[in-house]
Amino acid sequence: MPTYNPPLRDMQFVLHEVFNVVDELKACPKHAEVDADTINAVLEEGGKFAAEVAFPLNISGDEEGCTLDRATHEVKAPKGFKEAYAQYVQGGWPALSCDPDYGGQGLPFVVNQCFYEMLNSANQAWTMYPGLSHGAYECLHAHGSAEQKATFLPKLTSGEWTGTMCLTEPHCGTDLGLLRTKAEPQADGSYRLTGQKIFISAGEHDLAENIVHLVLARLPDAPAGSKGISLFLVPKFHVKADGSLGERNGIYCGGLEHKMGIHANATCQMVLDGAVGTLVGQPNKGLQAMFVMMNAARLGVGNQSLGLTEVAFQNALSYAKDRIQMRSLSGTKAKDKPADPIIVHPDVRKMLLTAKAYAEGGRALLTFCALLLDKELNHPEDKVRKDSAELLALLTPIAKAFLTDNGFEATNHCQQVFGGHGYIKEWGMEQFVRDARINMIYEGTNTVQSLDLLGRKVLGNQGATLKKFGKLVAALVEEEGVNEKMAEFINPLAGLGEQITKFTMEVGFKGLQNPDEVGAAAVPYLRVVGHLVFGYFFARMAQVATRAIAAGSTDPFYTAKLQTARFYFARLFPETATLMRQARAGSRVLMDTDAALA
Question: Is 184 a catalytic residue?
């Protein structure tokens, strides 16, 4: 059976020693009183909930799955899920980073991000039920009417109600301009929605008394394509004037998807049969409003893979220390045993260190993204808010795609460490692999994220935002460029920073001549920039560790951090050379292949 220990020490290192979040947040009046002790205490209790309440349900939930009563269209989550959710609500966890005006605790988003990493390690499928509610909350908080906010935000904040996003239809996934769900205006100002949505995570369940669906649909006079999409709030149960629940609305689950992983989360086919909804935001501007939820979800999916990478690594490391097989190539290490623990073998260490590096790099990136979001929403200076929003927009597709690609590789490596036992269900490793696979697909496939990064976020503004991140890299290089102890981290980072400028110009120029060149280069391009981002954060973490050791610290944590950073730059970072060569191969070898793909 797998185990899980919340990585509180590494979280505290990233929060307080690398990013100094308390000092950063003091500039935001809303968070000026937040201190390190409060953050640490909240995360310690959050870790207990993740490890003691959510984690024990992970394997059993996967085995049992969800059940649909086709007569009533009601879905029942696996045994123990409803009780765990009740504990989650009773503990006040849904309100952690929500607005105090609606009953929230008002803590920084960066705290919620760390808490959710632990929940994702413990039980990704369970965590999706409350996790999607945060996106619905943020969307309504930004675009809802005063009446919608007053009616729905307190219930989403308390966790009494949960939320979903209903985008995908049988004939359209990412290309939402093709959606057909209709919304007919009614005399009372409401709308009646008719259509079908698929792949709706947590679309129907028994954990909460009401579900708030945010649904994309078309008005009768809507223009074609994505410019004719509106957003509607469609509750599972109608809400009366006094806030109590009324009759069941015309939205229900018509079927459950049978999936490779996340079996314990209800992935629903949702039918809208004259369901009553209210317009969120402006007519035909629904996609812009929904992007608040979609961007939150993309960061959340990156966090799912971070959580799985961490828990898979922990269990693979423990197994590698205990399992004995063969003798070390450099001589016997465990003389009192018939064979050495497999952790002595170089390739086993490579697999473990790959997972560890991807977990620690991902934690740094997502913490930085969460801090940017806190500053975007709360900083008093307009320039800081705009710069933070711009950087976050650049990093969001990287957080989603790079972390989920890495997470699938890492969980596969960790399964491999177990050998044949990794393929057996009782050890839990095969579930981590299956659960991780969806993260590369939903909330926009990783190819879509790559096109978004290269086409919109980089070439769309002539690399201006990328240059802003480049300035962070350049400042670190200048600060540590003459420090010999940092050379093995700084030199490769500086080199890639220079190469990416030329690389981006090449891709952009080719794209002007043939747009397929952008499509052909996008996926390797995102991984190259992903390594630039990880390289920057690993160099910063190495800087902190080096200074701590120089100041006399004997804490092995800092030595471990340097060893992990050294491995990352030596064994993972060089992937960028191959990736750039792949991208420079151009589109011809992909598109001039009609005979090969006949």
Answer: no
